[in-house]
Structure formats: structure tokens, C-alpha cells
Amino acid sequence: MSKTDDVPVIKSGLNANAIGLPGAVIMSAAIMGPAVSTFFNPQYSFPFSGAGTPFVYLLCLIAILIAASGIISMAARLPSAGAFYTYVTRGLGPRAGFVTGGLMFVAYALLPPAEIGLIGSYLQSTFQGMYGVNIPWWLIAIVPLVMMTWLAYHGIATSIKTALVLFAAEVGVIVVMAIIIVARVSSNGLTLHPLSPSASPTGFHGLVIGAVFAALSFVGFEGATTLSEEVREPRRIVPKAVLYAVGAVGLLYVFCLWAEVNGLGVSVVNHMTGAATPWNDLAAKYASWMNWPIIIASVSSMFAVTVNSNNGIIRILHAMGREKLLPSNFAHIDPRRKTPTQVVIVQSIFAGVVTLVVGWVSGGLRQPAGGANVYGYLGYVLTLGILPVYILTNIASVRYMIRSGSYKVLYHVIFPIVGVLLIGGLLIGQIIENPSAPFKYFPYIIVAWVISVSATALWLGKNRPKEMALAGAVMASADVDKS
């Protein structure tokens, strides 16, 4: 056993060797949701960064690639379903790991209800506009909630196969539509101005605020790390999957948003709001036959994000449950399905309740605004929740690698530190340059949550020191063969 992995290895009971490199890449890429992030996230940035939004996405891609360096280093050495929770525990201690687990819960657990609400809102608006039929968004949202639960209950292989089909369909539609726009606009002259910071109509302030929803588009890039106990050769495959997913999806974002701004025009983009559906407008303007493919790709992308983020939080809660830091029934694995079925049920109930409560309070259950606000509000909160996790993981990576005695200064020290500075700057910028209510209050929700989770960690350290000491010790069964 190597000196960097000198902890007990416990077989988890999850379905080992079920996923290869393509499946791991799809896990990360599908959680990012290329179609939903391209079709819906930018219009939340447009009121702030306007035509400069493609530049914001380019900056976010660079920042995430750098910040991913520490995550990739830890994934190659500590494959675990606990992902960031395990990495931070091993690098900074069990209390910091527990806080990380709490922040990951915010990020991953809020993604499914956010997407479910958006599916309901989008389809309600679509049915109203196209057929004059008004089906309340919350009734529509029940369908993806039930399907998400069924897929999670029946195992990761089924979920990944479903995600692969949905992902291929959505990427195909995005690329085809973007190429059509570029081809049609090229006769009048394309401009690279949207890739410049000067394209922001509100200057630096707009770039900073617009970056939150650009960062939301990358949330989940680390999703493959939660499959470390179900992937073949996790030390080799998981780091590659994270890197490939970020690079490919990030470049797709930049290209498609550049095409979008060129297709709509700077003045239109600068006055757009989160309620807009610009890609439907682009289809009507440049290729009306693409209208239904865009609708289908939008919904399939939302559902793929729902399924994969749900699988991610299920495995994180399972890892914390088997280390006795959460209820012990979270550690239960169905012997036939190789799935933590009890966690599946708990998480699905949570997702359903959050979707309905947030939608009801923020916009009502009958109007599309209710479901849209579920996505906008939860998306902002979960992004603020995941950014500190990226920071903590990179700090933990530096400390862990230096202590291990085998590290390269550029990859294992400089890159993670730069990543901390970049993500930290983005996080601080959201607090200093905060937009109007209710978004300006959301950072305080995260602060209150961190204080609550930290207090719980202190209590566990004092009253259940053995359980706290074991935090992060559960490693992938693949480690048995490599230690």
C-alpha cells in the first residue's frame, strides 16, 4: 500500500466495473447539460453582460480548466463515490470534509428540482404558445420526477445509457443550429466582438454578475468523480473524463453563444431577460424546421442533467452514510440492483418537495414563472454553493500532494493555487457586485448553511470522534488491487 493511500479499504457494494471512459465522460458532460445551458442560462447573463456573454463563458472555461487541476490530481489518487467530500477530508481533515459534503449537498441536491421546475415551465409555455393548452407546470414536472426516480432505482448502467442517448441528441441539435446561424449570417458579416470584454454594456460589473450563470453552465463537470467506484480503472479513466468533458462542452458553449449573439444581434441580446427563449426565435428566423428538434433537445438536456445530478448526490449521501456521518440506512445497497435504493427514495422526495415549495412561493403553481423561478433561484444558490467546494478541493490537493512527497510544482501547486484565486475572485465578486433582490440575499443562505454544517461537524468531532476520524476512509474497491 502506498504512503498516500494508507487507510483501510472498504468494499462499497456498488456495481464495480460497470462504466468505461465514454460513460464517465457522459456523466460529467450530461450534468453540465450542453443544450439547457446553451438555450436557457445565457439569457440570465444577458441583462448583465449582454453581448459580452460569450467572452464570459470563455473566461469561465479557462478558470474551470485551471481549477480542475487539483480535482483531477485527487481523483487519480483517491477514487471514491464521496468525490470532493473524500478529497477534502484526506487533504484538510474530516471536519473540512464534512463541511464540503454539506456544500456538495446544496449543489447536487438542488440541481434536480431546478431542472424539473424548468422542464415544467418550458413545456407549459410551449404548449400554450403552440396549441393554446394550459397545463400547470407542476403537473408536467411530476413526469420527469418519476422517471428520474425509476432510473436511479434500477442502477447506474441504465441511467448512463439513457443519458448517452439524450446527450447525443441534444449536442447534434445544438451544433446543427449553430452552424446554420453562422452560415446564414456570414453573408452579412460575422463579428468577433462578442469575444471581447468591451462587448459588455454594463462594463466590469456586468461581466462579474453574468459569470454566475456562466459558472452554472459548468456545474457538474466533476460528476464522473462520483462514479469512481463503478468505473473501470478509476485512477486513469476518471481524470481523463473530467478533462475531456470540460474542454469539449466549454468550447461548444463559446461557439454556440458567439453564433447566438451574431444571429440575434447585439441590441436584441443587450435587452433580453431570463424569460426569453432566444433559440426558438433563432429557429423561427433561420430554420423553422428546427423548432421541434430544439424543443426536444431542450427537454432531453434538462432531463439528462436531472438524471445525472441525481445519481451524483445519491452516491455522495451513500458515501457519508456508510461512514456513519449520516443515517446508516443511507449505506444500504440493494443486492440485485447494486444501488443505494433507500437514498434514491429520500432524495426523490426531497427534490419533489423543494420544486413545489420554491415554485409556489416564487411564482405560483399555475403560471410558467413559478417553474422558471425554481430554476433561476436554485441555480444561483447551488452555484454559490459549489464554488467554495472547488476552492477547498484545490487547497486540499496542494496540501495532500506536498505531504505525499511526489508532486510537480506546476501541475500540483501552481495550477491549483491559481484555480483558487480565480474561483475565489468570482465568488467574492458575487458578494461585492451583487444584483437586485432576491439574488442579493442568496449568499447569506450559503453562509448560514456553512455555519450550521460547521457546528454539526464540531459536535460530531466532540461527541462521535471515531466516526469523524473515519471520514473519507472508504475507498474504491479498485484500490484493493492497486495498493
How would you describe this structure to a colleague?
There is one protein chain. By secondary structure, the protein is mainly alpha-helical. It has one domain (3-99, 141-317, 386-482): Up-down Bundle (Amino acid/polyamine transporter I). The chain has helices spanning 21-32, 34-39, 42-49, 53-77, 84-92, 94-131, 137-153, 156-185, 203-216, 234-264, 266-270, 278-286, 291-322, 341-362, 368-404, 409-432, 442-463, 465-469, 478-482. The longest helix is centred in the first third of the chain and has 38 residues, at 94-131. It is globular, with a radius of gyration of 21 Å. It starts with 20 loop residues before the first helix and ends with a helix.
How would you concisely characterize the structure shown here?
This protein is mainly α and 483 residues long.
Task: List the topology elements.
Elements: H1 21-32, H2 34-39, H3 42-49, H4 53-77, H5 84-92, H6 94-131, H7 137-153, H8 156-185, H9 203-216, H10 234-264, H11 266-270, H12 278-286, H13 291-322, H14 341-362, H15 368-404, H16 409-432, H17 442-463, H18 465-469, H19 478-482
